[in-house]
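Human: Here is a favour to ask of a fellow structure person. Comparing notes only helps if you start from a blank page. Give me a protein, with the fold worked out from its sequence. Please set it down just below, with no commentary around it:

Assistant:
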Amino acid sequence: LGDLSALAIYWNTNAHSRSGLSRDEVLKNLRQRIAVNNQQAPTDIEYILRPLNIKARIVLAMKPRQEEFKRPMFDIKVDLDEISLNINRDQYSDLLHLLEFRDYLSVQSKYIKYRISNDIIEKPTVKKWKFAYEAIVNEEVRPKFECYKWENIKLHLDRCREYRSIHFQELLGKTTVEQKQRAEVKYNTNYRNNSKSRFIYSI
């Protein structure tokens, strides 16, 4: 028998910071806002999921074979109170801002290494142009040109020749499963790395 009381999800759009309170005051303030049930819930909490009580009862058949499977192995009964889901305009707007901020942090973590310190360039406009140049060149331009370097082209050709040789050996029945799998992994990895370049090499 399991019992889950006052399961709830809330999002207050006008929440105030508790940084000025002591630890005991913060804990006391939070405990006062714990709902007992859906009827005894704080009025200053904006719930997305209203407090919900769940009771679950499970009966296990420990030896179903000896009982000739007359009872199910798992007999589960779940009792739920009324489920209430609601999201208002302010909560929806806050969630969108949160997702937007998450995307902003993701992009910032990718390009922050190209930021120029104030000691090197004093003019803000020059610093911004320098940052944009370094970010675009290192993230967009140079990776594409890497595909056209002779070292990468030669590596691709060697892998294709190796794959072709093993394929011929497979047709003749002279190859092992391990050799075939290793060649396929190398070829597929090389194909994915060069698919963006749209460059076809002839063997």
User: Anything to note?
Assistant: The helical segments are 23-31, 89-111, 124-146, 150-171, 177-194. The radius of gyration is 31 Å. The chain has three domains: 2-88, 92-139, 147-197.
